[in-house]
Sequence to fold (395 residues):
Amino acid sequence: MFPANIIYDVIVIGLGAMGSATVYQLSKTNLKVLGIDRYFPPHIWGSSHGESRITRQTIGEDERYIPLVRESNKIWKALEKESGQALFYKSGGYLLGHENSNMLFHNTEDFIARLVELANKHNIKYTTKTADDIRQEIPMLQIPSDTIGFYEPDAGVLYPEKIIAAFLKLAEKNGTSFLWNDKVTDWYTEDGLIHIKTDLEHFVTKKAIFTTGPWIQDFLPTDLKPKVKVYKQEMFWFKPAFRPEGKPEDGYAIGADAFPWIIWVGKNLDEFRTFFPTTKDGTKGIKFMTEQYVEEVHPDKTHYFITDEQVQAVYEKFVHTSIKGITSECLKREVCFYTVTKDARFLMDFHPDCKSVLFASPCSGHGFKHSAAIGKLLANNIQKEDGIFDWGLMG
Ligand SMILES: Cc1cc2nc3c(=O)[nH]c(=O)nc-3n(C[C@H](O)[C@H](O)[C@H](O)COP(=O)(O)OP(=O)(O)OC[C@H]3O[C@@H](n4cnc5c(N)ncnc54)[C@H](O)[C@@H]3O)c2cc1C
Fold:
């Protein structure tokens, strides 16, 4: 299948959110590119599945990422045209917190205050909300009276599986080669070239990019491995009983047309919860998730099932107490992985001993919204020779 003695210009290993965006950008150059994935993306074994990903422009986690989300939005708009399908829904989004609490989210304290500061500085539309405003706008929410909110009207949800599939399809059309369902097991350099070994094949390339998501530790140099930790997260889709205005369930209740995303930062992580709107062609339920940073795993050494008892416990503790009109019937449940750095930021750089190899784990639970621009950054950087990672998006 693969002609012998080919020397690729770039091999991209791992074709989820980051890798698919990268091969798409590389496919627009004259470079000879190969993409390899151990599965056939989009799939449910990594970090980029679950029908929806929140996007917002106020990146309270790190101001440097605001140009990334803005550039990503432009790339996705163009991708919608090129692929002929909707990839984003502008639902608006609320970040909720409590007055006089530290509002810690993704390692940033006072998150709402930070969002207000950034929105003013970067000219992003927003409104701050009192508990009464929120109750009026989303009557089904059961919030305490010390709740405060930040609303971004242009925020919304992205459709991760559709985006990954679209990037890969267009890259293939532009001439990129792919190897699916084969796992990279090792790599080494010899005579200035990089050798990539898989379970079944052996490739030679001038440059390589590792975007293996929650498997990134398998390829990081030993001293960088402790910089990332992988935590298993769970997603649940609960069936709604009523539309917010009180109409009976109609199979598409509380749809994307009637519900924003809600990130609800509690007084501590144990109270944290996120609700996602139903997406147009997706499971007809409200998607719900918490975050946990206790059980550290490797994706090959953990189970992927969620028991009925776990579903019930989550429903009782979080869903039932937060929103009126959502039944305990769980339509779908999935496991997904956060790959997290200590400061909840992104890890993207050249290999310390090899300037022809890039690693990127831009995740920490909030990477998807930036992934299209990160693909462009990685594609730009791999074409440089100086081994200094450049965050500029030009070129
Ligand atoms: C539950 C959940 C909710 C999230 N919500 C949001 C959100 O609302 N907004 C947001 O911006 N971000 C969110 N994130 C974060 C975001 O989804 C991730 O940052 C992003 O999807 C990570 O993409 P990735 O390409 O790094 O990893 P992946 O998409 O997992 O891709 C890695 C790929 O590498 C392949 N691979 C691994 N090892 C090998 C190997 N040895 N050989 C070949 N291939 C290999 C895998 O098969 C996989 O396809 C969320 C994450 C989770 C888990």
User: Anything to note?
Assistant: The chain is about 20% helix and 30% strand. The two ends are 34 Å apart (CA to CA). Residues 13-19, 36-39, 41, 46-48, 50, 53-54, 183-184, 211-215, 218, 233, 235, 289, 336-338, 361, 363, 365-369 surround flavin-adenine dinucleotide (CB under 6 Å). Confidence is low (pLDDT under 50) at residues 248-253.
